Each structure stands twice: as structure tokens, then as C-alpha cells.
Amino acid sequence: MPDYLHPLRFGSFVTPITSAPQHPVDLALFSEELGLDLVTFQDHPYQAVFQDTWTLLAWVAAKTSRIHVSGNVLNLPLRQPAVLARALASLDQLSGGRVELGIGTGGYFDAMATMGAPLLTPAEAVSGLDEALDIIRGIWDVSVPTPLHVNGEHHRVAGAARGPAPAHEIPIWVGAYKPRVQRILGRKGDGWLPSLPWMKPGDIERGNQIIDDSARKAGRDPRDITRLMNVTPQYDADDMAELAIEHGISVFIMGSDDPQEIRRFAKDTAPRIRDRLERARGKTSTFAAAPVARSFRDDPIPESLAPKVLLPGDRGYNRYTSGYFRGGRPGMVIRPESFTEVQEAVRFAGRHRDVPLGLFSGGHGMSGRSLNNGGIVIALDALDEIAISDGNRVRVGPGARWGQVARALSPHNLAITAGDHGGVGVGGLATTAGIGWFARGRGLTIDHLRSVDIVTAGGELVHASAHENPDLFWAVRGAGANFGVVVSFDFEAHPVSPQVGFAMLVFVPDDITGFLETWGTTIENADPTVTGTLMISPAGPGTQLAVQALIVVDESDPDTVVERLQPFAQLAPMATQSVKMVPYAALLELPAGEAQQHGHGEPRGHAGLTQHLSRDVAAGLADLLASRSSFLLSIRSAGGAVADRPADSAAYGWRDANFLIAMLGGGTGEVEQRWADLVPKFEGMYLSFETDTGPDVLARAFPPAHLMRLRQVKAVWDPSGLFRDNFYIAPEPAEITAAPQS
Description:
By secondary structure, the chain is an alpha/beta fold. Helices cover 31% and strands 19% of the residues. The protein is built from 21 helices and 31 strands. The chain has a 9-stranded parallel sheet with strand order 3-2-1-11-10-9-8-5-4, covered by helices on one side. Strand 18 (386-388) and strand 19 (393-396) form a beta hairpin.
């Protein structure tokens, strides 16, 4: 009896007839009115008696407000996968995340050939489906900065730009009847969508087994794959309940164009199936039985934490299998909603030091291990408070996003300089440093931090500031992930004009070394209100290298903005340029779909800090950009107000560095060697963009005196090393100036 523990959902399967074109739309609206979860349409483009399914899907999505829409299933050979991926993402954005993808090989190959599709054999169609899934996923994966290349036999893309990303994680449901397609589904799909009238005795059991085995071999949990079933009125509630209980079917889609049949399915059949399944799972439809005790590695989960725990297969668990850059499959996710629950979560994690421990704030962590495989993740995204008190003090939870903070502060003409991407969580950035759009004029994010509330390794809630537990407060500002779970930040916001200058310039320099060197001296000599970032990727063969410059001028007067940008206009020929006045909050706004996170695997990234873009550093960067690898290089400006504070004022110790250099991607031996040649030219390293680990990396991240002091503080607050999975600082048993205060 496989129970994949998916919630039950119900839908309709409508024929897209042309003889009464409004009838399928009316049935879709009726399905929504009845409370069904989705409406689907078959896709046979070679049938002139049917409307075009994609056009119908778009029309129905516009006419409805809640119900999800899907093809059942879309005919892949007649729908080019890269274009289909973009169409799906666009419709998903426009509909508010209500599009699903049901897809299949087509089946009627002679009929498909009459519409221009190649005449395929069944085996060729299956191969094409395998290739198409890679293309569709690749187009949606905007977290990868490099173009998409899939060189398939039947479907291919050669350097396609990725995006747009859908508004939600569109599941891919595959109409699969044969073992080969089912194995592909197990590796790459999200749902099995056959039709019950086509199934022979034993087909469901065999199909489930093949899909499950294939998923496990691919390192996936079979519970990640939803089991759907198209049914017809000949099957009653008892038939379908048995499918749910015995075979794990959780989505039933009624194939009928009769409104009375659809009503009966929604109002009578669906509740009866739900009641049977709930009773089979140990519940009733009217009251809950005693909850089944749950555990992690045979350790019972405390009753107070149980409602906040997600285990593999639970609804909502998949949110924590992908961050913005990396993926994982935690053995347990704890999502606390209060400081007390964070304390309980930390105490529970303390009993399981043999597994990784991740702290998940906004999900952007490339360097840290906010996600893991088989371990515990404490997800702080529910702690997203943003509270503005009298004056300019702001209390912010670790799960808030910096874009949300900027929007909340904007009506008060306040801001907290923080990074350059609105989707980044407050917790990770505010415990590292925070080089943002106002860095040269306002300093680092940690320079505006006045106190924190932090849960330490012992599960205690501690307040730390310059006057209370000052050594802990010092350590949190640059190495916070090593010392506890910060549950609240108290910032002092700074004034900001209603609008600031924002320039996007694309340079095409003939001499990249000379350009980088003069860019460096120009921005170092610029007014402190000017902060800028360069974004560069290696040029392909026969293509001139382009450099995108993003520059913010913290000034409300447009003439002053233009004046302060003038020195940059002379650096090299420009392909395009744009200068406009925008609210600071607009700089951190996310395009539709950008909040979605589809990271997987282990990303590659490196970072270095340098005082100047000297000829030596610029030449090394030019050599890096001559690599044949694909990666994104960014050069962010710091300096200015960052250097106004003493180097030992916080754990972040590289106050004299005017530039943060970061590389995302690469990974080949060639580019890794070229980066290694650059490392001796740097003064330090910025943790958030580095994926290498080990003592040598830690030594680059902190000046020697800072690292020694951090080890001493670690010995007081986390001597057993509970917080060890994000650039672990080994404790040094030595006296420190101040003992912890209560």
C-alpha cells in the first residue's frame, strides 16, 4: 500500500470542441465555481474539430481567478520545448502561478506528421521527451547565469537565454504508459498522469514500482512524484478511494463534458474519496484521532515542535529542497514562528550533532550550508517582522527579505544599505557584512546594526549589543552563523531621498585590463554618494567582450547625478546607456518569478577583496575572462564610509578593501587555476560568495588577530561546535576580555 502522503485534489477534463467554442470555457468556469482544483484539456492539434489547446488555456486562465489549468497532455512533437517553456512561464506569471504542465509523446504519429511534425517512431518520441524535459527545466532555471545548451537528437538549444522564470514551481506531469517513459518520469518528472480506462490489471502497481525505483536510482524521493489519474463517470467513489488508499493516487481528473457529471464528481464523489482516505490514514472527516508520533532518526519530535516540523513527503517540504543557488534534501525541516520555538529547535538539533545543521533565512546562501542532505534545517522565513519605531530604529526578523525592508522604510524616507538583490534574506547578509548600493556613502549593513537577539548553542535567548555581551555582538557582525541563530536585528536606518540616480551602462572596451584599472581609480576618486558594480562574462568566439556597469548615485538632484556620472562615460566606448531617477526600493524590486528558487546541486563560487584594481589585479582578471569557461564575474565597489570605522570594530576586518570581486560558475580546471593565480593578489575574502571550505579559506576570510579573537569567543558561546556547517571556526580555549552577561 504506497501512500505518498500527498493532499487530495480534484479536477475536470474537458473536450476543447470548436462546434460550441464557449462550452469548454463555461465548463472551466463551472469547475472553478464547484471548488475543483484544476481544469484540463486534451491536446490534439491535428484534429480540426478541436480548438487549439494552448490558446484555450490562456483564455481560461484569464477568465478564472483561482483554478489551475493544464494540458492533458500537451503534444510535445508539435510544441517546440524551448518556446513551450517560455509560454508556460509567461502564462504562469500572468495567472498568478496557476499553470501546470501535462506533457506526452503524442502517440498518433501519422496524424502529427500531417501538421509538419517529423514522422517519429515510438522510441524516437520517447527520446525526444527525455531531451525536452532538460530544455524546459533549463529555460526556467534563471539561477544559472550561463546560456542553455542541450544538444539532443530531436530537440536542441544552442546558447538559449534562460527565463523567464515561472511564478511558481510548475510541476511536469507525464502521460506515461510504457516502462521507458516511466523511468524518465522517475528521474525528471513531477507527476504520473495516465488514464484509468487505458490501464490493464497490474499496470498501476508496475508503473508505481518502475517510477519509484527510477527515482531512487536518481537520488530522488519517490514521494516527490505526484500520482494523478484521469477517470470517467463509470468509476464510482469506492473505485477511486481504493486507488488513493492502495496505489497513492492523489489527483483525480474527471473526463466529462456533462455539467451534471462534473457537479456530482465535485459535490458527492470527491468528499467520499476524501473521507475514505482520511479514515485509512487514521483520521475521520469530523475529528482528528490522536496524532501519529513522528520522529527523526528514532528520536521523537517534541510535541511543542511537531506542528512546525516538515519531513520528506510532507506538504510544504519541497520548498526547502531548493534555494536560489543550491539544492538539498534535509532529513527534517523545522519552521519556527517564535523565539521560543527557535530555542526548542536548537536544543533538538543539539541532540543530533552527527548530522548537518543548516540555518535557512532567505534561501540565497551560496556559500553557507543553509540546505543539506539528510540533516536538520532550521528555516527562519516565518520570522519576517519589520517594525519601525519612533525615529529611525527598525526591528527586523531574519526571514524578512531586503526588498521588503526597503518597501517598508520607503514611506518614511529611510533605508538600510544592504546588498543589491531584494530577494536576499536579512539573516544571512546581516551576519556577514553587507556591501550594498550605498556602501561608499553609508558603510556596511553591519555598521547600522545596534543589537541582536540570538539563540545560542545552549538554546538560550541572549541579547547582544555594544554594551551587553559586547564580544558576542562583535563576532555576530561578520561571522554570525558560527555563534547562534539571530532571531531579531535592531538597525538604525539612514535617511534616503525619495529618488536616487541609477545608471546602466554597457561598455565595449578594446583593452579590458586598462578599462578595469581606470574604472577602479575613477570610482575610488568619485564622490562617496557613488557606488557601482561591474558584471562581466567571458565573450564567445568572435564576440567582443561587453561590460555592464550598474551605478547608483545617492543624490536627489538629476543634474548632480549626471555630473557625478560624467567621469565614467569617458572610460570606454558604450553600446547602450540608461540613466534615470528611481526610489531606492525600486532597486531591490524583484521581477515576476525572481522570488522563486530552483537551485540544485553544488554551485561554484569564489570571492576576493582588494584595496585597488591595480595593473596586476586587472591583468589577472583579464586573464580569467580569457578562459573558455562560462561564469559571471562581478566587481562591487566598497571603500568610502566602509573605511571610516576601525578595522577591529567588528569581526569583518577588511575595511580598507575598495573592491569585492566575486565569480559565480566556472568549475573547470582551467578557470579554477586562473582564479587560484589571482588569490595571492587579494587582501582578504568575502564569505557570502565563496564555496570552497577549509582552514586556508577561513584564514583568507579573517585577519589573523580577528580569527584568534573569534576562536576565543567561540570557546565561550559554542565550545562543542553545534554551529559548524558555515565556515566553521574551531574554538580556542583562552580567556577573553568580557565574560558573557545574563
